[in-house]
# Entry
Amino acid sequence: MISFNLFVLPFSFGLIYLLYMIIRWWTKWIRALPPEDRARFRKGIFSRQFFSGLKEVFLESLVHRKMFRRNALLGFMHMSFALGWFLLILAGNIESRIYSTSHVNPPYYPIFLKFFIHDRTVLWFEINTVPGFFRFLMDFLLLFILSGLILAMIKRGRSRWFGMTRTTHSQLTDRVALVCLWLIFPVRLLAESFTDGYYGAGGGFATQHLGNLFAVLFRESSQHIAYALWWLYSLALGIFFVTLPFSRYWHIPTEVLLIFFRRFGIPPKRIASSFSQVEIGACSRCGVCIDVCQLGSAARIHDIQAVYFLRSVRDEQVSRDITLRCLVCGRCQETCPVGINIDLIRLIERYNFSGSHASDFTYLPEPAPRKAQVAYFAGCMTHLTPSIIRAMKGILQEAGIDYHFLDEEGSVCCGRPMMLSGKHEQAGELIRFNRELILQSGADTLVTSCPICFRVFREEYNLPVRILHHTQYLLELIKSGKVPLQTVFRKVAYHDPCDLGRGSNEYRAPRELLAKVAELVEVPEEKEDALCCGGSLGIYTISSRKRDLITSDALDKLTSSGPEVLVTACPLCKKTFSRLAGIEVLDVAEMVYGAIPE
Amino acid sequence: MKEFGYTVHKERLIDYDRNDKRVLNHLKKHEPSVLTCIACGSCTATCSAGQLVDFNIRLVQTLLRRGEIEPLKKEVRKCMLCGKCILICPRGVNMRNLILAIQTAIDKLQ
Amino acid sequence: MTAASRLADLGEQVILLEREEQVGGHLRNWDRLFPNRRPGYEVLNYLTEELGSKVDIRCLQTVTTIFSGERDFQLQLASGKSLRCDALLLATGFDLFDARRKEEYGYAIYDNVITSAELEELFRSGAPITTRQGKVPKRVGFVHCVGSRDEKAGNLYCSKVCCVTGVKQAIEIKELFPEAEVFGFYMDLRMFDRHFEEMYYEAQQKWDINFLRGRVSECAENQDQSIVLKIEDTLTSRPLKMTVDLLVLLVGFVPSPETLRLAAMLDLPVGEDRFLEPADEHTKSTLTVKPGVFLAGAVKGPFSISNAIADAGTAALQIHAYLKTL
# Structure
């Protein structure tokens, strides 16, 4: 005899629809993978990576470890829903198997167990432990989830307690899904309590006492109220499931697929692909990307942050403006608990708008460099900060290095600014030229003063030589004793350029180098959290005034501990900061050059 | 409308009355900083492409605003988008966004 | 100085507080003045003689605080003394743009890049003008608009007098080195006052000075320390490259931080260009919105010496009229 009641239908239909959507989209995405990635997926399922994927699903999707690191309350809130609900379903399934009379039960059975079964049986393992173990556990888990719900409600009014100043402005589908989600658990609590109260059995420590209260208050009506509540519970679940694929909660299943894609080694692509689609679906719209965006916090530009951008892509309503209004500084990507490659997706969308605009680089000459062991590429921006070039020339001469200054007469752009417009194919021609130039010089080491060039050399150029940013190279020279230094020890603050820091993961070398010639002071947001100077070539649509707001804001924070000099490792940052800084702005190379005794 | 004696060299004449202002209007809307250009020439002087080929961004942008579109459609393709011009411009004209806007405008006209 | 003399003539009691060890401001460092290239010391001497002993001149004084009373002001000086007065005239002048902020021109990086102020000092000292290497310059370049009309330098305004200074100094270089080639690199040539346009004409016709319309984007240094310039010759729409032995940067005006500090103490409105605002642009150009506080000269923005002297006279009359109402 299968337990059934009409009210289980909304839940059941909702669940079937949701499962159908998941299967449909997962198949579509996996099928749309290029053959080599499909092979990786197949291999991955039967490999050790599968289990490390499961572990990551547990740690990040359920426990929300990355969220916890950001803010404990925020992490707990997300965890209580995710882990709590997962455990509730798991425990509920086990409980239903113990209590049920038949071997096969419909999927709705564990969800509505308390409607169908109300007894106080003491199980064999409970005799010496907690009586009513499962009754206790289910109530405990339910309260665990409800504590999160209360936090979520508090967050509406007091988001700052959760480490967030601004939160996501939600759309209609998200609001409908949210209302249903928020109803599910309180309604379940009430439904189970009323049922327990009416039958006088079946509940745990919470539902039992609440149930008794309701029985006293409502007497005979308890049964009808309970029934209405079970209907409401089923409806809340059903509507939630049906709206889920169209709301932010689609991230729940999609994030799992993303974790496995990554674990199986499937790489992101430069154009729209299954991988980018899965990433976009995995965005939970948690909104932590909003506060870190300097366009919002300093320049008061508010509707282009990562969460809104990704939403517009998913809704297929991307405007050109939203793709172009981004510093591509990487701060949002750094905080994203899901680890979405937001910058890359921004460039993919730019490609969709501008990729077809042809470039004409037929005028590029034949490269004919002098041969030398070390090739120095200043970068086009560095020509506007000649003090950096003078410092480099001086240091290289002091160390007696045989080098060739590749772009002394002027640079052909390294190509990354072109890539930042989405035109990666056109950038390829610039890359081809410079690559030839570098290879023909016969150098085994390439040194550059510009982090933008440094990053693209490493990521796109495919060079068989050692590629170093000048801070790394100068550190080597000093460690090998080739450059004598007289320490001056002024108090300096170091600014991590976006493309050297987050972009190339180099935080240590500039600091180690700088520490040899100066005293570094504390900077509030540094390394992975470093601020962008505002001079970014990643953003296209911005007025000078708004840019200056970002620069001033960054300067305020960088100079807050009163350094004498602001030191950076990028000519663009240097030029951008010098415009508005009250103190001296120097490059690391200049600091080193200044410390060489006469 | 009087036609003076300019009819002889029609190719050289900028006929401001008849020229196609659609690109100009598109630019005014999408990159208004172009309105403040004083044609000082420092952008062209510092231009990475300008030192390798006959590419004069100041001239191209000025002529486009006059409505001289046809001969210039292909000129903007030479830009490497390196950004030196933005760094040097005394009026804060955002040349890179201007190039993208010009390309979009020209595409729209096709 | 002028305002003090005029006020003393009108019978008022004047105390002239000067920060440096002598009065005169930037005029003390100027060799010859446009448009007629007469010696600056002549004007300085005239103004000093006018002051005579009618005015109580106190040098090396800094004002630390100003208290504004109902109808008077209390000044606290760094020396410890305090003064009471019925009216205040702010004539604290201007600073010059620090050319190191236009790094692409190579000032303080390359040997042979100097500012117009430094050139004027060289003229005044009478020392032979050579490159840092001791060479007689065969080519001298003047860069206009350094630090002015430049969003990247933080100053959108035009400093007015640097164009005519550039033309003047170009002529003076030609006087010293008739064989040299002299160039002026400009965006616009602002010859705003009487005799200025004629001086420009003379520079071309008599002295064969070359004026090139193009803003210098960047400079590099040759092996022999001569300076290579990258410009667009906008009049021919072609890129132009040239080498000069000596490069002179015509630096503009910037508001002095000291003036802004004093203005803040008096709650005086400051314009977006960071110069002080008079009560009315046209009709009350030496008064401020604060009764008893007056402005004259370059605190309000770029001024030529002749205009500043005239402005000071107006200020003196306004102050005198105000004092009569007390």
